[in-house]
Amino acid sequence: MSLLEDLKTKFRTITIIEKLIVINVVIFISFYLVKTFTFLFGATNDSLMDWFVFPKEVNEFVFKPWTIITYAFLHSGIWHLASNMIILYFAGRYFVSYISGKRALTVYFLGAIFGALLYMLSYNLFPAFSQVGDSYLLGASASVMAILIGIATYIPYMTIRLLFLGSVKFWWIAAFFVILDIIQIPAGNAGGHLAHLGGALFGYMYASQLKKGNDIGAWFEKLMDGLLSMLIPRKKKSPLKTVHKSKTHKRAARNTKTNSVKNPNQARIDAILDKISKSGYDSLTKDEKDFLFKAGKE
What we know:
The chain is mainly alpha-helical. It has helices at 3-13, 16-40, 46-50, 58-62, 67-70, 78-98, 101-125, 141-154, 170-184, 190-211, 218-231, 247-261, 264-279, 286-297, and strands at 54-55, 136-137, 159-162, 166-169. The strands form two sheets. A two-stranded antiparallel ribbon has the order 1-2. A two-stranded antiparallel sheet has the order 3-4. β3 and β4 (166-169) form a beta hairpin.
């Protein structure tokens, strides 16, 4: 097996959060490689970055609508990237375990969209930004905040052990980051902090509704599934069919129908989540923790 094939195989087996981290890192390295080469040849790559960062001006965004997504995969420096990916990995692991990987992807993208819209709205509404010239948004922070606040809203009272701080509840962590963004708006990078709050707002709304049984991101998942089905053609079915009827086949069909109505795994997941809400994550057995982690990958 070649190195490329080995990397492809490993990429397929990792969680969606780890895939997002890999994509962000690869894009960051790619842009900085381009920046290095253009510097060596006395050129500039600013014009390339301008095509993917999100603008505050509506008329500019109309001609670059893809930037409402692409900006969430760009970073201004190594610390910007590292801080976002560390929080994404920390919060994303819990999100995948307690909710699902597919929904984590939905929250990542919709968090980015909400963050960008709040950024644009704020820069065109509040007088404090009336004298600001060209301004652009980049970074995964809005998406990361959506996932962090989303999982903190879903399991707010679960205790987590942090270095030097001991055991803290999940909602304490979420509240800390939200307050930090609010108080830093006048200090600088106001647009970035406003985008973070937009992502956080969506994460809160998403998880709050999900706990009530409403998936407000289902439409986005269907949209993505539709786009993928258009881009990736399905395998053609064989025109030859073999039909065999028997009593065993009928019994199997009935069993399949019964299983589709009630999923025993989901019942166990609900029971474990109830246990967490009452006694905290640390009350789970190793078997229950392993089961949740595996269920999150499905």
